[in-house]
Amino acid sequence: MVGLQREFTLQLKRVGGTLQQEQAWQYLRAAEDLAKIALRLDTRNDVGSDRATDHLQEIWATETANYPLAEGGWLRGSIEDLQGRFNLNGLVEARSDGATDGPDSNVRQGEDRLTAHQRQFVRLLLALEIPDMDEGQALKLVDSIADFIDTDDAPRPLGAERDAYQRKNPPYRPANRTLTSVTELRAVIGMNDDIYQALAPYVTVWPERGGALNVLTAPATVLRSLNTETTLQPLTALDGEALVRGRTDGEWQSLDELTTETLLEAYGIDNVAGELGERSNWFLLTARVEIADTEQRLYSVIERDGDSLITRYRTMGDL
C-alpha cells in the first residue's frame, strides 16, 4: 500500500506538471497572437500616411502590466524593435550569389580597410564602456566576428579562421555563414562573458541581410555609435542621452530631422544616412507567464511583411 501510494503521488505530480507546462505554453502562444494583432493594427494605422514610421509611442511599444489569470498567476508581454539594434550579419558584405565576402587581398591595412558598418560596431563596443575594452581590442573583435561569419579560410589582419579554432581545446570550426543566433558570439575567439553580457542587448542577427537601423527606436548606447566616419570613437554618454531626450520631447522625430539636428551636424553624421531608417519589419516579443509559482518565458522573432506577420524563431531560452 505504501508503494502504491508513493507511485500514485509521483504520477499525479508528473501529470500536474505536464498540464501546467502545456497551459503555460498556450498562454505564451496567446501572447504571441496578441503581439501580431498590435503590429497588424499599427500597419493599418499607417495606411494612407504621408510618412509611415515606427517609433516608441505606437501601440506595439506600449509598456504592459501583469495580466491576472483566472487560474491564478499572471501573463506579461513586451515587443521590442529588433531594427533598433545593431545587425551583426552586416559585418560581412553579402555577394549576389548569397555567399559572404572574405577579406580582399588587395585591401589596405589599418583602419581604412573597415566598412562603415564595421566602424560603427567598433564605436558600439567602445560605447559599452567595458573595463579593458579599447580601440585595439574592439578592432580584433570586429575581425574575429567577420572571420567567423565569412565563407573563406583567409584570416583578416586581426581575426581568426579555422586553424585558430582547431587549436582550441576542444577544437571546433567557425560557422562560415550568417549568424542565426546572438549566442553564437560566445564561440568567437576573443569574446568573453563580460563582453557578451554587455553587448547582447544591443545586437541582433535579424534580418539575415539588409535592414536599416531605426533611429526612432534605437537606445542611447546604439545611437552613440553614429559618430562621423573619420573616427572610431563613439559619441559621449551625455550626447547619447541628449539624443534620446530630444526624440522623446519631440525635438526630432524623423531621420531627416536627426541628420540635420545641431548636435549631429557637429559630428558630420549626415554622411551615414544611407544605413539608417525610420521603419521596421522585425520585432521581438518577450512573453512571461507564472502559473502555480512557476515562471516560463517565450522569445518570438516576428517578421512583418505588409499585413502578413510570420513567426521566424521561437525559443524559451537565450536568443
From TrEMBL:
<comment type="similarity">
    <text>Belongs to the GSP K family.</text>
</comment>
<protein>
    <recommendedName>
        <fullName>Type II secretion system protein K</fullName>
    </recommendedName>
</protein>
<dbReference type="GO" id="GO:0009306">
    <property type="term" value="P:protein secretion"/>
</dbReference>
<keyword id="KW-0653">Protein transport</keyword>
<keyword id="KW-1003">Cell membrane</keyword>
<keyword id="KW-0813">Transport</keyword>
<dbReference type="GO" id="GO:0005886">
    <property type="term" value="C:plasma membrane"/>
</dbReference>
<dbReference type="InterPro" id="IPR005628">
    <property type="entry name" value="GspK"/>
</dbReference>
<keyword id="KW-1133">Transmembrane helix</keyword>
<keyword id="KW-0472">Membrane</keyword>
<keyword id="KW-0997">Cell inner membrane</keyword>
<dbReference type="InterPro" id="IPR038072">
    <property type="entry name" value="GspK_central_sf"/>
</dbReference>
<dbReference type="Pfam" id="PF21687">
    <property type="entry name" value="T2SSK_1st"/>
</dbReference>
<feature type="domain" description="T2SS protein K first SAM-like">
    <location>
        <begin position="84"/>
        <end position="208"/>
    </location>
</feature>
<dbReference type="InterPro" id="IPR049031">
    <property type="entry name" value="T2SSK_SAM-like_1st"/>
</dbReference>
<keyword id="KW-0812">Transmembrane</keyword>
<dbReference type="InterPro" id="IPR045584">
    <property type="entry name" value="Pilin-like"/>
</dbReference>
